[in-house]
Design goal:
- The structure is a homodimer.
- Chain A is α/β, with parallel strands linked by helices.
- The first copy, chain A, folds into two domains: about 1-90 and about 280-300, NAD(P)-binding Rossmann-like Domain (Rossmann fold), CATH 3.40.50; about 95-270, Rossmann fold (3-Layer(aba) Sandwich).
- Chain A has helices spanning about 10-20, 35-40, 50-55, 75-80, 95-110, 110-120, 145-155, 185, 210-215, 230-240, 280-300; strands at about 1-5, 25-30, 40-45, 65, 85-90, 135-140, 160-165, 175-180, 190-195, 220-225, 245-250, 270.
- In chain A, the strands form two sheets. The first copy, chain A, has a seven-stranded parallel beta sheet with strand order 8-7-6-9-10-11-12, covered by helices on one side.
- The longest helix of chain A has 17 residues, at about 280-300.
- The mean pLDDT of chain A is about 95.
- At the A-B interface, helix 5, helix 6 and helix 7 of A face helix 5, helix 6 and helix 7 of B.
- Chains A, B: Belongs to the D-isomer specific 2-hydroxyacid dehydrogenase family.
- Chains A, B: Keywords: NAD, Oxidoreductase.
- Chains A, B: This is D-2-hydroxyacid dehydrogenase.
Chain lengths: ~325, ~325
């Protein structure tokens, strides 16, 4: 069996893979190569190098392992028609992402930007307000693997968690869960609004200016899902009008965020350059998931960890 | 009965107190007044305006309520000889302090200083390492009310917690607890070393340069107790030699930290100007504790919430 990596992993990780699966032929390339593509049964990719044509070339491919969580750039229809199994490393982002979200929330509440600024100026300044996270209510759009981990951590800080998903079915570590059509009724309750929604037809521009007017003045909005959740101009308007207290943005409509974007200079905005899911432990964890899945695959199992519905986009 | 406040609280808080206890005479002064002192049975103070002479004047005082947690500046011996009950608002610092400690830890792990700096420069920069808190081991010096709350939060982040106290008796939310004489054996285990120790004869200069050499290179040291835990010169030497990764300091040998202190400029130091226990909810909470205690006091109970052993200093 041939497993084709369209990227070149760290030597120690490659070595451990080759040692653990002596019966498999592993091909590692820095870029995608049509000849190799035509021969591979399993494809390992970051999910940004495939299109319909590549899928046609990859005639033998039965499983694509995506070493990231986003699959927006993949040719969904072509993959679905061929019945190719797609799985990703969804769970891998859970811990680092949730820790980043808590870091930003606590930093704002406990005045860390103020502390850092005064240190730069060598100023002993105690004149600021420090707030507490405990006792808040958080609205979590997309209480999936990451959202539930965020909910678990928030609950440890005595935060009341309300999940919002398609079905309204209860989700782990949510005190309540509601369906998306209840969104407008729920927004006024939120001290914190966190989105970890993927980009789908349903979530694109889900929020607009009006939604922000329904939030409390002191609400903190965090977008850690995808940048097209809200039009940047709507968000800027809401922030300029102080409809909310602060926005922490890890994702943007255009990335990198253009140098002339107003967002850079706004005092009530934190610009995180889409790094919140990163971790020094990322690749090790990807490989652990891949190895478990490859073992299953070779045993003829097809119900892999993080198996995705490519047409639904998650 | 006369209750004398040596500070002037917010009008709404005073009003609610007077309404709840119509049988009590409340005196509120901005400074300490000897005539009032001589008449009061209960004294409410921030703990920094009393000396032996004042205690001698306060002949009728049987209970001192300290609306802060530090009692270093109080005349311990004189108070003990008179058998005056002393209680403070110890528990009140628990939540804000623990949230500050977690804020700083997560901020360092998740690269928030890097993110803020790049935003100032309007630079989209992803070139940094992000680490995770989960999986770490934290050594907590002083697992009391605050330390245990820190332990509870750390455990929610899958951090292994080791408490170190006088007796070695187990403390809440500590995976292990040891006595102080085991300190040198424990230091090499710590990814994080947190002190919340009060200033006592036993804790003064408890840590010296040698202790820092026993810590891991990547260890984060957090002093949120008192500044005389370690000589500043020892700490600076350890930091210059990169014996540890970072120090987050909320307390200092001299406060405010002098403008010419080397600490201000060190890249591996965070200077928090002794504000980590502050909270917008502080006074409300103090008053809640005081009201509960006053009710007990009027019922003849003397075993008050947060009753202190003034000679031991905690």
């Amino acid at each position: 069996m041939r497993v084709y990596f369209t990227f070149d992993p760290r030597p120690d990780l490659k070595e451990s893979l080759v040692n653990d699966f002596p019966e498999v032929d592993f091909i590692f390339h820095k870029t995608i190569d049509d000849k190799e593509l035509a021969k591979a049964e399993v494809l390992v990719t970051y999910g940004e190098d495939l299109d319909e044509e590549k899928i046609n070339i990859a005639k033998k491919v039965k499983w694509i392992f995506v070493a990231s969580s986003g699959i927006e750039k993949m040719p969904h229809q072509a993959i679905a028609e061929r019945g190719i199994v797609v799985s990703n490393v969804r769970g891998i982002h859970k811990k680092p992402m949730a820790e980043s979200i808590l870091a930003h929330l606590l930093s704002i509440k406990r005045a860390l930007p103020f502390i850092y600024k005064n240190q730069q100026e060598k100023t002993w300044n105690q004149k600021t307000k420090l707030y507490e996270l405990n006792g808040s209510t958080a609205l979590i759009l997309g209480p999936g693997a990451i959202g539930s981990e965020v909910g678990r951590m928030l609950q440890a800080f005595d935060v009341y968690t309300i999940g919002v998903n398609r079905s309204g079915e209860s989700a782990p570590y949510m005190n309540e869960t509601h369906s998306m059509d209840k969104l407008k009724e729920l927004l006024p309750k939120a001290d914190i609004l966190i989105s970890i929604l993927p980009s789908t037809v349903e979530t694109r521009y889900l929020l607009n200016y009006e939604h922000f007017t329904l939030l409390k003045d002191h609400c903190i909005f965090m977008n850690f899902g995808r940048g097209d959740l809200v039009k940047t101009e709507d968000l800027i308007r809401a922030l300029e009008e102080k409809q909310i207290f602060h926005a922490v943005l890890d994702v943007f409509e255009t990335e990198p965020l253009p140098g002339d974007s107003k967002l850079w200079e706004m005092e009530n905005v934190t610009i995180s350059p889409h790094i919140s899911s990163r971790s020094s432990r990322y690749l090790e964890r990807s490989f652990e998931i891949f190895k478990r899945s490859l073992r299953k695959w070779m045993n003829g199992e097809r119900n892999l960890e993080n198996k995705m519905d490519i047409l639904k986009g998650y």
